[in-house]
Design goal:
Length: 550
């Protein structure tokens, strides 16, 4: 008894402790002198005193009993124990008491509870996970079907979270997710469930709504709460959210269909401009099916080399001299025909296919420009290659570019990478660092579609840029639209004040070209000069191009 790690306690039929070993002292904290002669009830919580009625049963000859329960240590500390109670008999075989063997199972219980917690809750935010959400949805849907109630599912995806995570690190990203989770919890009712189901994806399950408008009001509150500034370490961060909504039973009578339709609606909200919510409709399903079909075709297209490059010349307006070409990605599908880049590039970005595809287009464009340098008079022709946000955010982006330039033999100053305003305004510190690395090697940078996004002029000054590209939507109404003239004139002046070259896209008439030249816009491209062409046609056009005499 004394060598056992378990507590071995003997009591008489009145519940008075008559024996207490070292194991009992270790587990419960009482010395032998403190418990011998006292009732065993001091070790038992008041709500469990009936467990000791087993002694009466033992006196009637029942077998040993075993159960798990809670006992009180010295100071009232609760201890999880596994208890075995056996009868104690005298020499004549009469039951005179009972012995208890108690084993401390606190650690095991804590481990079980932790495993149970991990199985049902997100370890980062403490929110229910997908498993617990499914359980709660099953119960709620059953009750809603029985009592003709309505439910709502909100699929929440954070906009622009990935750039924060990639540029500032996972520690900042994790703290940001916790802050978002806390704000969402303060927005919904206690009876509703908020679940984190992915990196920056959350699902909110609203129980017993009266009408779809109730879900819309919750979505509006969530969007407003999430969009408030966050202070994480020394960083002030901004986020928005896109939310898809599906209603039970209108948009599905099972959890799987409600989840699928809310997910589809969320993507529709993103496509519509983000920072908004979207209800589910049958039309969204058709679009989702088409998008999935496009994704499958795109994967096949890359393997079959259906995606190719076309080149559109860039002209110096004052001299009409060809100074470069923009490389434009195109997809010729055997059934769909020529697929618009606006359709397949977002799919390539969402699936990550843009990384391998973008590197291939970059390599092909550099090789082609290197070939054009052999044409007399075009030894310094530059090539502009568009870079997506997904590519630019990769940590090894500059390594990829420098490796391609070295392997293709293209002089670095003949490569210009084009990025949009939205790309450079996300994670400014990382953008500046990457631009400086590329600039140090002579590679040029241009801001594409300038004027269509949001740019801070103070930030633009930090970037090592070479060109601003005026979006064609502003050129289209020149030269007879006063608003378009004012915008283009302002952009050209901004470029000059920052020491940048300015190039206009979408020039289709001589009148547009003359106006742009009059406001000292440096360069242009558009159908006035040539449409995008495949490499061989571009080379033939290049050879035949004769700028007018000075």
């Amino acid at each position: 008894m004394e060598s056992s790690n378990d507590a071995i306690i003997v009591k008489d039929l009145n519940g008075i402790i008559t024996s207490w070993n070292a194991g009992a002292e270790k587990i419960f904290g009482y010395r032998e002198s403190e418990v011998i002669g006292f009732s065993i009830s001091r070790l038992i919580p008041s709500d469990r005193l009936n467990e000791e009625d087993i002694t009466v049963n033992l006196s009637s000859g029942k077998l040993t009993d075993h159960f798990e329960t809670v006992r009180l240590g010295k100071g009232g500390k609760p201890i999880d124990v596994s208890v075995t109670i056996s009868p104690v008999k005298d020499g004549a075989g009469k039951v005179i008491g009972a012995s208890q063997v108690a084993r401390d199972i606190t650690q095991r219980k804590e481990s079980q509870e932790h495993i149970q917690y991990l199985a049902h809750y997100d370890s980062l935010t403490g929110l229910p996970n997908r498993t617990l959400l499914a359980d709660r949805m099953k119960v709620a849907i059953g009750q809603a079907a029985r009592y003709s109630k309505r439910l709502a599912l909100l699929f929440v995806d954070l906009d622009r979270f990935k750039p924060v995570n990639d540029t500032l690190g996972h520690d900042v990203g994790d703290k940001l997710l916790k802050a978002v989770a806390k704000r969402m919890q303060s927005t919904v009712r206690h009876t509703d469930t908020i679940s984190r189901v992915g990196g920056d994806e959350f699902i909110i399950f609203l129980s017993q709504i009266e009408a779809a408008e109730d879900a819309a009001r919750v979505a509006e509150k969530l969007i407003a709460a999430i969009s408030q500034p966050y202070k994480i370490k020394e960083h002030e961060l901004m986020l928005t959210a896109s939310i898809g909504i599906s209603i039970y039973p209108d948009n599905g009578k099972e959890a799987a269909s409600l989840l699928r339709n809310a997910d589809t609606s969320m993507y529709s909200a993103k496509e519509a401009g983000k920072n908004r919510y979207q209800f589910y409709s049958e039309d969204l399903t058709s679009r989702a099916v088409e998008r999935f079909s496009l994704e499958c075709d795109l994967r096949d297209a890359i393997g079959r080399n259906e995606i190719f490059v076309m080149y559109q010349p860039q002209i110096e307006l004052a001299t009409r001299r060809v100074i470069g070409a923009e490389a434009l990605m195109r997809w010729q599908h055997p059934r769909r025909g020529l697929v618009s880049p606006a359709s397949f590039i977002p799919v390539a970005e969402d699936t990550g296919l843009i990384l391998s595809l973008g590197e291939r287009i970059l390599r092909e464009s550099c090789l082609q420009a290197r070939k054009w340098h052999n044409c007399r008079g075009f030894e310094e022709l530059r090539v502009g290659v568009n870079v997506s946000a997904v590519q630019f955010r990769q940590k090894d982006f500059t390594d990829v570019v420098l490796r391609v330039v070295e392997e293709t033999g293209l002089p670095p100053h003949c490569l210009e990478l084009e990025v949009t305003e939205s790309v450079v305004m996300q994670g400014v510190e990382s953008v500046v660092q990457k631009m400086r690395i590329l600039d140090a090697r002579g590679i040029k940078m241009a801001i594409d579609d300038f004027g269509t996004g949001y740019s801070s002029l103070s930030y633009l000054r930090q970037f090592t840029l070479n060109r601003l590209k005026i979006d064609q939507s502003f050129i289209r109404d020149l030269p007879h639209n006063a608003d378009a003239e004012a915008i283009v004139r302002t952009i050209a002046a901004t470029g000059r004040s920052l020491g940048l070259r300015v190039i206009a896209e979408g020039i289709e008439t001589e009148a547009q070209a003359k106006f742009l030249q009059s406001i000292e816009c440096d360069e242009g491209q558009g159908y006035l000069y040539a449409k995008p062409m495949v490499a061989n046609d571009f080379e033939a056009w290049l050879t035949a191009w004769k700028p007018p005499a000075a």
